[in-house]
Amino acid sequence: MSETALPSPNATTTAGPLLSVEDLHVSFPHPTGSAVEALRGIDLTIARGEMVGVVGESGAGKTTLARAILGMVPRPGRVTRGRVTFRGEVMTELEDDARRAILGRDLSMIIPNPRGELNPVLTVGEHIGNVLRHHRGLDKAAARTAALDLLRAVAIPDPQRRLDAYPHELSGGMAQRVVIAIALACSPTLVISDDATSGLDVTVQAQILDLLKALIRANDASAIFITRDIAVTAHFCDRIAVLYAGEIVELAAVGTFFDRPQHPYSIMLLAAFAYSSELRRHWTRPPAEEETLPPGGCSFAARCVRRQQRCLMERPALRQLPGGSAVRCHFPVGGAT
Ligand SMILES: Nc1ncnc2c1ncn2[C@@H]1O[C@H](COP(=O)(O)OP(=O)(O)OP(=O)(O)O)[C@@H](O)[C@H]1O
């Protein structure tokens, strides 16, 4: 097997987008009585072979979106409205058994801190082998051979020896490669990476993201890259969705987004990564001015340097722009009102 070769992708069965998220609302009850609305009407489709980045600050709802796509919103949280359809299956309505048959085979998720997720008493070979035996029906010997191929595909050093290693014997980068091998073992058609490389050092992060992208592309799969680092999306994605307070506030092709961001929050995010402190100052309201505004208006209004009276009164809809972009703002930066 060559370095990026994986088993053939699972046959797809439906036309149309691979994944469709429609008007998705998720809420978590709060001890004080008022619920936390983690997602408030998410609409997103992912085409076959497409890589979409989901960015936003901590608490924006990125992980909740990933979990809702998998049909695994942690209790007592729940989907209160809308639905997720993956290859024709309504994930938000599936019984546990039907969902388990899809997860890890057609749809898989890669999470950060992989050593914490790996079972300390199972070897690397057993971890990967279990997935292959469960979903692809391989016997023990065939699963071990396939696991070795996967370790080669994720470019792990000395793969034969690592097959019998336990999680505590792996570096963080190696453990992340093992988790990628597990996630890709059954050639999923959609991979969700939830901040998968956070916590690794920067050069290892770049290597792992490059590898992940190559493997996903080689497999003709689609991906959602959830990240707090907007630069990651520039290198790895076709489109970018900016999440703020449980809503998509901007959706655009990566080139368009970085050339002409439309939402003031997108520019604030970009400014946070920019060298220019002038740019940051221009687009960021000092914390003292971040008032609590009455509900009902734009969720970003309190922090927005461009807000006007209308923003306090009326929640903006996600509006389509020419070229396939969309923005949730009454006064987008490009002036497309
Ligand atoms: N299990 C839970 N119980 C209660 N509230 C939750 C739970 N999980 C998420 N939330 C709330 O939902 C909102 C969105 O959280 P989420 O973890 O999806 O954000 P995030 O964008 O992934 O943040 P981070 O980048 O820090 O992981 C937050 O207000 C969070 O407090």
TrEMBL record:
Organism from which the protein derives: Kaistia geumhonensis
Domain of life the protein comes from: Bacteria
Name under which the protein is recorded: Oligopeptide/dipeptide ABC transporter ATP-binding protein
Keyword Membrane part of the UniProt annotation: yes
UniProt GO molecular function: ATP binding
Subcellular localization, as worded in the UniProt entry: Cell inner membrane
InterPro entries: AAA+_ATPase, ABC_Ni/Peptide_Import, ABC_transporter-like_ATP-bd, ABC_transporter-like_CS, Oligopep_ABC_C, P-loop_NTPase
Residue span(s) of domain ABC transporter: 19-270
Coiled coil: none
Classification via PANTHER family: ATPASE AAA-TYPE CORE DOMAIN-CONTAINING PROTEIN, OLIGOPEPTIDE TRANSPORT ATP-BINDING PROTEIN APPD
Topological type in the membrane: Peripheral membrane protein
Predominant location: membrane
Family stated for the protein in its record: Belongs to the ABC transporter superfamily.
Signal sequence annotation: none
Lineage: Bacteria, Pseudomonadati, Pseudomonadota, Alphaproteobacteria, Hyphomicrobiales
Keyword Cell inner membrane: yes
Entry keywords, A to Z: ATP-binding, Cell inner membrane, Cell membrane, Membrane, Nucleotide-binding, Translocase, Transport
PROSITE patterns noted in UniProt: ABC_TRANSPORTER_1, ABC_TRANSPORTER_2
Alphabetized SUPFAM superfamilies for the sequence: P-loop containing nucleoside triphosphate hydrolases
